[in-house]
Amino acid sequence: MLIRNYAELTSHGNARGRKTVLEIIEAGLAAADPYQNVRRMLRIEDGKLLVGCRDYAIRGTEKLDLPLVFDLSTLGDVYVFGGGKAVQRIAEAIEDALGDLVTDGQINVKKGEPKRCSKVNVTFAGHPLPDEDGVKGATRKYELEKKVKPGDLVFHMTSGGGTATLGWPAPGITLQDLRDVTQMLYFEKGASMPEKNAVVSRLRVPRDGGRKPGVPVIYISSSETPPGTHADHHRSFPSTDAIEILKRYGLWDKVSQRVRSHLERAHDDPMYDSKRTPIHSEYDYDEIYSFRAIGPEYVLAAAKKKAEEMGIKAHILCSSVNDIEAGSVSATVANIAREVERNGSPFTAPCVLLLGGEPTVSIGKASGKGGRSQEFALSAAPWLEGSAGIVVAAADSDGTDGPTDAAGGIVDGCTMERAAAAGLDVFEELDNHNSYEVLTKLGDALFAGQLGQNLRSLFLACIDTPNK
What is the CATH number of the domain that holds 281? Predict the structure, then answer.
């Protein structure tokens, strides 16, 4: 199983409900892997490389005659570039499909993930805070892209985590500046990921590598946004003005003078426009074919299917609950679950409530350790106290939640009693955003290891007590 501590998690509390929930989470996590979808897009036949299919094509590529056909007798070098938590699985699929056709490549992935690629160089970089290794990998990627010439073929992948793992400070900006802005904006203030990226992208090396004409780019993304939803519903959306965002959160006077001076200079500089191309590249490519290999809907669909195979009705409440405090989302879900348990409304038990997305955890100056999935799980515990049939859990699809080694957590109606017996004050620990400490001590932190995928988090509540 992907869930490494299944036996421990089901050894106490509502064992029956926990087993049900963990099997559903297992199915959801397994469905987040982009490998098979990428393999479906690539094949070699009769001296031709065939790339893409309509199921995954986006941004106008779906209107083209697919698959794209490249004659191997005239094809130049093949390069693979990218950054983010899911790009190594995509790169691995490319390597397995193309074999020795791959010339070279450079990708930056989150530290802790095992090395899977052989032809493509893999740099293990810091996430969510960028580090020196990420800068070295980004620099190598830039230098390798210099070699790309007309007639070559480039695969460029992105996924969540690309901005951090490819964090390369612009001239005059330090790596510590990038780390400080990320810490203050995203962690302390709870800004949305698009807001954080809009600021940090302006502090990275600009896309000044020049144009790369005559080079087709196969852009493959592992998308965090379900179809038909917005990336961000935050109050400042759709603003991407870095200065405005920092001022909105009261951080303009708290960031370094280097950051303020740079953003003022870069404000109207088109070289720092984060939307110039849809890829994390310092070069401009004219010929980009875009494919979305996978998205969060795969996780929710697999979880729903698994529940129904187990004879339990499943309801997807929201596929993209974002930019709301995880504790608030948890309280709402837990109260709906209690309503189902007590009154058979708005659904009847047994049933499972499913959500996906990226809620926030605004830690301020708190010193605790955790992440959105762990905070969601633990925040539900007080609302479930005494319940005989409700289990609430959450797991991050990449296998690690926030700056921890846990993927998430699981709680039930016994959790508060067990916490008290262990001398843990759940409310105090939640105030300190210290969910990891509580869940690990109770044997309720879910561990899966880094999975090389990234489709936000899966949240669920299982109600297994019939209405009486």
Answer: 3.40.50.10180
Place of tokens 């809620």: 359
Neighbours of 198 (CB within 10 A): 25
* Secondary structure, 3-state, 66-93: CCEEEECCCCCCEEEEEECCCHHHHHHH
CATH of the domain at 334: 3.40.1480.10
Closest Cα to residue 358, out of 372, 374, 368?
A: 372
How distant is the alpha carbon of residue 76 from its chain centre? Answer: 34
For the chain, the average pLDDT equals 93
Q: Which residues contact 378 (CB under 8 A, 6 or more apart)?
A: 370, 409, 411, 426, 429, 430, 435, 438, 439
Burial class for 463, CB neighbours closer than 10 Å (0-12, 13-18, 19+): buried
Structural domains in the chain (count): 2
**Cα(153)–Cα(213) distance, integer angstroms:** 11
Cα of 18 vs its chain's centroid, Å: 25
Contact 101, 78 (CB under 8 A): yes
Other beta carbons less than 10 A from residue 69's beta carbon: 12
Cβ contacts of residue 270 below 8 Å, gap of 6+?
Answer: 276
Pair type for strands 408-412 and 283-294: unpaired
- pLDDT digits 0-9 by tens, 204-249: 998 778 889 999 999 999 999 888 775 544 444 446 789 999 999 9
Residues with Cβ within 8 Å of 399's Cβ and at least 6 positions away in sequence, in order, are 2, 29, 407, 448, 449, 450, 451, 453
Residue 57 has which token pair?
Answer: 């094509």
Q: What is the pLDDT of residue 228?
A: 76
- pLDDT attached to residue 273: 67
Give yes or no for residue 309 having a pLDDT over 80: yes
Cα dihedral value 86, 91, 92, 93, nearest 10: 100
pLDDT digits 0-9 by tens, 342-367: 999 999 999 999 999 999 999 988 98
As to burial, measured by CB atoms within 10 angstroms (0-12 exposed, 13-18 middle, 19+ buried), residue 150 is exposed
Amino acid 233 reads H
How does pLDDT run across 83-101, given as a tens digit for each residue?
999 999 999 999 999 999 9
- In this prediction, residues 21-35 reach a mean pLDDT of 98
Instruction: Tell how strand 78-83 and strand 102-110 pair up.
Output: parallel
CA distance 238 to 194: 9
The answer to whether residue 250 sits within a structural domain is no
Two tokens, residue 109: 């992935």
- Let me know whether 135 and 281 are in one domain: yes
Residues 16 and 107 in one domain: no
Q: What is the pLDDT of residues 125-166, one digit of tens each?
A: 999 999 999 999 999 999 999 999 999 999 999 999 999 999
Residue 83 main-chain phi, psi, to 5 deg: -155, 145
